[in-house]
Fold:
Amino acid sequence: MRMNIKKMSLKKLQLLINDGGPETYSQVIDILGSDPRGGAQRLVRFCNTKLDEWHRERERVDRMYSYERQCWAMGYNLVAGLDEVGRGPLAGPVVAAAVILPGEVSIPGLDDVKRLSGKRRQEVYEQIRQIAVAIGVGMVHPEGIDEANVMMATYKAMIKAVADLPVAPDYLLIDALHLPNVNQPQAPIGGGDGQSISIAAASIVAKVTRDEYMIEMHEQYPQYGFANHKGYGTLEHREALERHGPCPIHRKSYSALRDIVSLSAGTSFADD
Structure:
């Protein structure tokens, strides 16, 4: 391998680096480190940067498995991460997901869902679906939110997500919440989608599932632009509410929605 690299042109080495990993980066650095050519030194700097990125990613992933390792050490083999999305929007459901991963697996880019682009989030979602031991999803629709409140709906969605798992988890790691009415031991973790790999996976599953649902709702109610804002209170959404009033998937108990509709109609929003 080293002899082949030594005989390669800089152009071919660049192609190799683009498809390579840490072993390739290290070999290129060793072989070209003393090469005085400008192109060679650019490749060395590039490999050093990629190697630093790889080490940082390994360290980050290692830290994100710390809670799971503690659970495994105590004999809890099936550790489910739980997270939810959709407490803030004016329309659509609260969605929770539970994900059990098969030990320490590599999912490049798995991170806090808020840091990922939509395209990258979809790619990571597909990887999670392929390797997860189990995935469960729970959804509470606007009528369920309006009947009680969004926190109660969040708990209900999470309980549904746990029940939806095809295998029963031994332990629950939950993003910042303590879940009532479940049999498993659990730990609430503040900022969990950036601290636990299982919670991060659940966050992505919940986000993608909810986004897909809101895109489907866009087909039924295109005047609101749900495919763009997913039900959040953007200017586009607020203007659509002023023109059309709420539709069946709006959360009519939300004061922000009631204020928009009341101002638009020039009257108070009637209570049910």
